[in-house]
Amino acid sequence: xxxxxxxxxxxxxxxxxxxxxxxxxxxxxxxxxxxxxxxxxxxxxxxxxxxxxxxxxxxxxxxxxxxxxxxxxxxxxxxxxxxxxxxxxxxxxxxxxxxxxxxxxxxxxxxxxxxxxxxxxxxxxxxxxxxxxxxxxxxxxxxxxxxxxxxxxxxxxxxxxxxxxxxxxxxxxx
Length: 174
Ligand SMILES: NC(=O)N[C@H]1NC(=O)NC1=O
Known about the structure:
Blueprint: H1 3-8, H2 11-18, H3 26-32, H4 41-54, H5 57-65, H6 73-77, H7 82-90, H8 98-115, H9 128-138, H10 143-166
Bound molecules: 1-[(4S)-2,5-dioxoimidazolidin-4-yl]urea.
């Protein structure tokens, strides 16, 4: 889909198509619709980033809390969003050994207890070993550092999801 077509979409269709570029946060997409017309894909991505950056810290943490754990309950029960399922599978999260799963679950729990929001990383830009290493290292950061780091990862996830929707001719939800 090209950007000219995006600019003609009524908000219902815009939210329907782009509503999950930030995981389970269609309010971001719904808000950004008012910023049309977008001159380019990058402009749309920048509008989303600016909206997120303008949120209070509690809002940023809210966005992080909408993300499912990596290799967590939603993956085990098949209730991940389609996007998240593909991302987690691509990074091998659906094929962990039982020892790796236990380590992931334990570190995810530690991370959440320490910060009050889940560990978020752009799974498509990493792999199993990288995710485990980052999870273990990032557990030691300060809360504000982790909040900012998690939000930068959300933006990377968003960019790749947007690219998938805009830069291919793949059928979308319309
Ligand atoms: N917790 C977390 O990072 N979740 C995710 N990362 C990603 O790339 N897709 C997700 O669902």
